[in-house]
Amino acid sequence: MDLGRTVISTLLLAHSYLRFGVLAAVLAGLCATLLGWWSQRSPAQWDRILAIVFLGLYDLQALIGVILLAQGAVKSHLHATVMLLGVILAHILFRSVRSAPVEKSWLPRFLFYALPLACIIAGLVAIGHFPI
Fold first, then answer.
1. pLDDT one-digit tens code per residue, 90-110
2. Is residue 131 domain-resident?
3. pLDDT of 49-85, one tens digit each?
4. Cα(42)–Cα(127) distance, rounded to whole angstroms?
5. What is the 3-state composition of the chain as percent helix, strand, coil, each rounded to the nearest 5?
6. Does 76 map to a domain?
7. What phi-psi label fits residue 101: left (phi over 0), alpha (psi between -120 and 50 degrees) or beta?
8. Does a structural domain hold residue 106?
9. Residue 40: inside a domain, yes or no?
């Protein structure tokens, strides 16, 4: 096996397993947001940390996906399109979370997790990996 195939195989494996980290981060963030919204508390530092962890993992997942797409290792362009849309949405919504007044930040936080999660689910459905 040549080096190129080894790298692609490693990236495919990383992309496959990283999805669990992305899903765990988005679900943890969504749960924390809903609990915070329900209890009417102010967002804490860990709310921001959860958002950054989710965004970082999602960005890494997207980067690996784009590399795989460029190498021809991804067969579903629908999957790639939906996932990239989710990443773009996440970044736009993260900005709205950061700019929202603290007392009105729960809805933007909810959307920050819920809309990319919908894209993730749609992307997984597009390649037949949902339910996980």
1. 999 999 998 988 778 899 999
2. no
3. 999 999 999 999 999 999 999 999 888 899 999 999 9
4. 39
5. 85, 0, 15
6. yes
7. beta
8. yes
9. yes
Q: Report the distance separating Cα 128 and Cα 101, nearest Å.
A: 40
Structure tokens of 18? 């990283």
Sequence letter at residue 112: F
**Nearest alpha-carbon partner for 117 in 65, 74, 58, 66:** 58
- The domain containing residue 76 runs over which residues? 3-126
Judge residue 33's burial from the number of C-beta atoms within 10 Å of its C-beta, 0-12 exposed, 13-18 middle, 19 or more buried: buried
pTM value is 0.91
Dig out the tokens for 64 from the structure: 């690996």
- The residue behind tokens 């460029």 is 70
Residue with tokens 């669990």, as numbered in its chain: 20
| Number of domains observed in the structure of the chain | 1
Single out the residue of 88, 85, 96 nearest to residue 119, CA to CA.
85
Two tokens at 117? 């999660």
